[in-house]
């Protein structure tokens, strides 16, 4: 019994020793250029060797290291115990890497090309690539990346291309392209075939064309709307590669009214009636006011190209010291934009920019509209219009007060009856249609008189109405040379026209 117990202890100790030796051997496995790797001067290639760790003893002159198609699972700082100052290319694709330490690249300061594609990364942690100050190309496609820390790409200002396709990204990393501050050299950002549903459309619209040309968004479950249609239509008009090369794969989810069921459609079909009936977007020109400084952008699809401008008056402007004419100057800035100061009315029109690069030449047009007043005067005009509107409203209110709130005269008050009758002596007037026979025809045609008639004494109490029996006589105008020759007529006769209680004198 004791014999079996001692034997089991011996076997246990031997197995532990064997495992430890295997681990030590696997961790400290030296570089073998005969059986494990291929060494060609400064290139070391070790693909498909089932390596779990990076070989030790890498020479310090290594420039290219290929460890693809192995089973490496973690990348810590210990993988490079000695500085590799000449290493510029590191290939770690098709492994099982699920963790990368932020200190993993401290001893590889000259690395320019890093391939971590086809691994098992699920996030990009804080400052994970910040030590790679000279990195230019980063391949991260075909991983399981869901989260990208906002500081993951800090301090790598020379980075030009990031490949993040075929991951699980749900948020567009706007911090990588906004204002061009974090990654000023970035020309390609591949986010295709992820899980993006919404895009910062308004921020993407203002990006320069040379950056939008390399933002790939196809293969995402985007939500259909007219803003999205306008963004891609604008890129299509500019013939940007990110849209032209993958036009058929720019799809979006069109939700109906109940929301759960959705339909997948091409973004460029949203202008149809069976889509969202989005209107075609057209590029707007630029507007300016007198005296302003205007900068016209030559929004080329390429970066670092030579720009030559042609003004509406067929004047050629190239990048050279400012050409001044008195207090005016027109010049091409360092980024290729055309600056005009101060702007004048004759500067309006269509400006042409010829962008000349190594890959292609472009011709761009910018339409400038100049208003014949300063922006300050424009604001005063708005204030004047507002004041006029307020004045019109006040006038309408005063008219309504005059019409409906004027106090009426009250003759029934004691002591005011006679006074009221004296002031308002005319309460009825008669316009006679009978021609006057005492004068000549010409004098009768030209004579016009205002008649103020005194009401009869017995008219009071009738509420301004005439007697229905027609017994009331027409009063005679005293002192008038135009006395009628006919007998007195009743007010009820059809030959006369009466006006009762009119405040306006009657012309006869």
TrEMBL record:
Entry keyword Transmembrane: yes
Signal sequence extent: 1-28
Membrane topology reported for the UniProt record: Single-pass type I membrane protein
Compartment(s) of residence: Cell membrane; Cell projection, Dendrite; Perikaryon
InterPro entries associated with the record: AMIGO, Ig-like_dom, Ig-like_dom_sf, Ig-like_fold, Ig_sub, Ig_sub2, Leu-rich_rpt, Leu-rich_rpt_typical-subtyp
Free-text function comment from the UniProt entry: Promotes growth and fasciculation of neurites from cultured hippocampal neurons. May be involved in fasciculation as well as myelination of developing neural axons. May have a role in regeneration as well as neural plasticity in the adult nervous system. May mediate homophilic as well as heterophilic cell-cell interaction and contribute to signal transduction through its intracellular domain. Assembled with KCNB1 modulates the gating characteristics of the delayed rectifier voltage-dependent potassium channel KCNB1.
UniProt keywords, alphabetically: Cell adhesion, Cell membrane, Cell projection, Developmental protein, Differentiation, Disulfide bond, Glycoprotein, Immunoglobulin domain, Leucine-rich repeat, Membrane, Neurogenesis, Phosphoprotein, Repeat, Signal, Transmembrane, Transmembrane helix
Record region (Disordered): 418-440, 455-508
Highest taxon of the lineage: Eukaryota
Subunit structure: Homodimer, and heterodimer with AMIGO2 and AMIGO3. Interacts with KCNB1.
Family of this protein: Belongs to the immunoglobulin superfamily. AMIGO family.
Residues that span the membrane, as ranges: 385-405
Keyword Cell membrane: yes
Predominant location category: membrane
Gene3D superfamilies: Immunoglobulins, Ribonuclease Inhibitor
Single Gene Ontology BP annotation: cell differentiation
Domain (Ig-like): residue spans on this chain: 261-369
Taxonomic placement: Eukaryota, Metazoa, Chordata, Craniata, Vertebrata
UniProt name for this protein: Amphoterin-induced protein 1
Compositional bias annotation for Polar residues: 427-438, 482-502
Cellular component annotations (GO), alphabetically ordered: dendrite; membrane; perikaryon; plasma membrane
PROSITE patterns: IG_LIKE, LRR
């Amino acid at each position: 019994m004791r014999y079996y117990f001692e034997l089991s202890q011996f076997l246990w100790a031997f197995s532990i020793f064997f495992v430890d030796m295997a681990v030590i051997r696997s961790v400290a496995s030296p570089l073998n250029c005969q059986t494990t790797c291929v060494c060609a001067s400064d290139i070391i290639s070790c693909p498909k060797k089932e390596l779990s760790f990076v070989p030790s003893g890498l020479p310090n002159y290594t420039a290219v290291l290929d460890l693809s198609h192995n089973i490496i699972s973690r990348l810590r700082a210990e993988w490079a115990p000695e500085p590799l100052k000449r290493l510029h290319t590191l290939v770690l694709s098709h492994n099982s890497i699920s963790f990368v330490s932020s200190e993993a690249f401290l001893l590889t300061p000259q690395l320019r090309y890093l391939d971590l594609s086809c691994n098992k990364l699920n996030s990009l942690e804080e400052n994970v690539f910040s030590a790679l100050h000279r990195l230019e190309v980063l391949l991260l496609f075909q991983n399981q990346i869901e989260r990208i820390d906002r500081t993951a790409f800090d301090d790598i200002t020379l980075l030009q291309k990031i490949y993040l396709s075929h991951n699980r990204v749900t948020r567009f990393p706007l911090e990588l392209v906004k204002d061009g501050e974090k990654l000023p050299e970035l020309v390609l950002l591949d986010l295709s075939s992820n899980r993006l549903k919404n895009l910062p459309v308004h921020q993407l619209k203002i990006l320069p064309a040379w950056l939008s040309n390399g933002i790939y968004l196809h293969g995402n479950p985007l939500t259909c709307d007219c803003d999205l249609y306008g963004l891609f239509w604008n890129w299509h008009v500019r013939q940007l590669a990110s849209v032209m090369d993958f036009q058929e794969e720019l799809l979006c989810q069109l939700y109906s009214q109940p929301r759960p069921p959705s339909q997948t459609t091409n973004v460029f079909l949203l202008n149809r009636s069976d889509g969202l009936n989005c209107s075609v977007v057209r590029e707007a020109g630029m507007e300016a006011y007198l005296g302003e400084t205007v900068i016209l952008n030559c929004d080329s699809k390429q970066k670092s190209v030579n720009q030559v401008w042609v003004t509406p008056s067929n004047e050629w402007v190239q990048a050279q010291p400012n050409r001044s004419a008195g207090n005016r100057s027109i010049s091409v800035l360092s980024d290729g934009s055309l600056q005009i100061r101060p702007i004048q009315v004759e500067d309006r029109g269509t400006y042409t920019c010829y962008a000349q690069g190594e890959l292609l030449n472009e011709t761009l047009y910018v339409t400038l509209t100049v208003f014949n007043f300063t922006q300050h005067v424009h604001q005063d005009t708005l204030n004047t219009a507002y004041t006029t509107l307020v004045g019109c409203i006040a006038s309408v209110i005063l008219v309504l007060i005059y019409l409906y709130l004027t106090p009426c005269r009250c003759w029934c008050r004691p002591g005011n009856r006679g006074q009221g009758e004296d002031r308002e002596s005319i309460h009825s007037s008669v316009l006679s249609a009978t021609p006057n026979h005492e004068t000549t025809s010409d004098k009768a045609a030209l004579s016009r008189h205002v008649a103020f008639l005194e009401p009869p004494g017995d008219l009071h109490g009738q509420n301004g109405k005439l007697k229905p029996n027609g017994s009331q006589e027409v009063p005679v105008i005293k002192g008038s040379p135009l006395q009628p020759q006919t007998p007195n007529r009743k007010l009820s006769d059809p030959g006369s026209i009466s006006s009762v209680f009119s405040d306006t004198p009657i012309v006869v």
